[in-house]
Amino acid sequence: MPIRFLNAMALCEGDCGADEAEPLRAWLARRRTSLVDLAGADHVHTAVVQVILAARPIISSEPKDPFLCEVLGPVLETSRSAARHPPLKFTPKQAAA
């Protein structure tokens, strides 16, 4: 599965297609604070991008694709700001606990 859902973090890996958008939306909707790790994503479908833009989760690791970084600019800027003043720091191992 291209997106692994942990307790507090969604890890995007490989190709995240349109079929991943609804499970991601539902997962994000159930959480007040959520983290999304895009570092392992090779491709992210626009449906998934739209979910991220709408939900505005904290991006714990930015995508490798510079264009995707540009598209996700507002969400990434908020995440960078949160990283400068983090209330909590999660790692994938902690998020799975």
Description:
- The chain has a single domain, classed as 2-Layer Sandwich (Transcription Regulator spoIIAA), CATH 3.30.750.
- It has helices spanning 21-29, 46-55, 66-71, 73-84, 92-96, and strands at 3-5, 9-16, 35-44, 58-61.
- The protein has a 4-stranded mixed beta sheet.
- It is globular, with a radius of gyration of 12 Å.
- It has 97 residues and is of the alpha/beta class.
CATH architecture: 2-Layer Sandwich
- CATH class (first level) name: Alpha Beta
Order of helices and strands: EEHEHEHHH
Rg of Cα set: 12 Å
Helical residues, percent:
40-55%
User: Which descriptor suits the 3D outline?
Assistant: globular
Biggest sheet overview: 4 strands, mixed
Structural class: alpha/beta
- Distance from N terminus to C terminus (CA atoms, Å) equals 20 Å
Strand content: 25-35%
Question: Which terms would index this structure?
Answer:
globular, Transcription Regulator spoIIAA, alpha/beta, four-stranded mixed sheet, 5 helices, 97 residues
Summarize the structure.
By secondary structure, the chain is an alpha/beta fold.
Task: Present the secondary structure layout.
Layout: E1 3-5, E2 9-16, H1 21-29, E3 35-44, H2 46-55, E4 58-61, H3 66-71, H4 73-84, H5 92-96
Parallel strand pairs: 2-3, 3-4
Antiparallel strand pairs: 1-2
Helix pairs in contact: 1-2
